[in-house]
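FORM 7B: Structural annotation worksheet

SECTION A. Query
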Amino acid sequence: MNKAIGIDIGGTKIAAGIISETGELLNRAETKSDPSNREKMFTRVVKAVEQVLEDSSFTIADMYGIGVGVPGKVDREQGIAVFQNNLPWTKFPLTSRLRDQFGLQRITIDNDVYMAAFGEWKETQAESDETFVYVTISTGISCSIIQNGSFFRGAGFAGELGLIPVFSKTAKKLERLEQASAGPAIEKLAQKELQMAELSTKDVFERYKGGAREYQNIINEVTDNWVQALYSISCLLDPHKVVFGGSVITNNPFLLEIIVEKMKLYQIPEQQHLLSHMSISTIKENNGVVGAGLRVFEGN
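SECTION B. Predicted structure
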């Protein structure tokens, strides 16, 4: 059975896993990031790989290759982390550094959302002739599109769902979706509306689920904004499947029902096939690691 290492790199943590060719997560390790400078950050990536191997019965020689998901802009062909807002890696030659470090020639890097999308696409066993969309709602909001088995990249910036303008009823103006309804925005909205300085995004959802009626307007505002953007996806792509990931929605699966009900109000009957094919990730925080590992075997 072929195996690969999948790495999901973020500004706060780095996850590494050993992935089988069938997508099974055989082992997983996690370390804290160190974004203080580029070399310290790379050292933490190396540590994550070493840790996942130490905790398993495998060695680096058993690995077919390494796949890496990196936030921000990535040059896949040259193996360069071009720019990351929360990492110190401007034009960092990640592929060549990993080859030098571990001696494996097969290194695949891509944007982290694309890697997660690939993991979800494989997990849902989507058909190669389907249009599949992965949407992540967390600290940021983004999406990735797989059409006929390949990523739709446009000129290189496709999938930036968080940049779509939506009309915020609270602010009474157009705002970019990410600024209006990503995790940090939900926290700010709740603090402002309820005049509570120590209120977190997690608190908002927990108290809403606990029946606190004063949180209803906040949930309505946030989900209204999401659905405006999601309807744009429905109209432009008419996807066969949409899978949601990211901590905001995977930790609060009740949100899917709200999204589906609100989408019905927008969609005409010919679009409503999508409503029964919207789901929440079952691999959750592991989708980036699994997707990165699986991409090694795909060679794309």
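SECTION C. Observations
The chain has ten helices and 14 strands. The chain has a mean pLDDT of 95.

SECTION D. Sign-off
Analyst initials: ____
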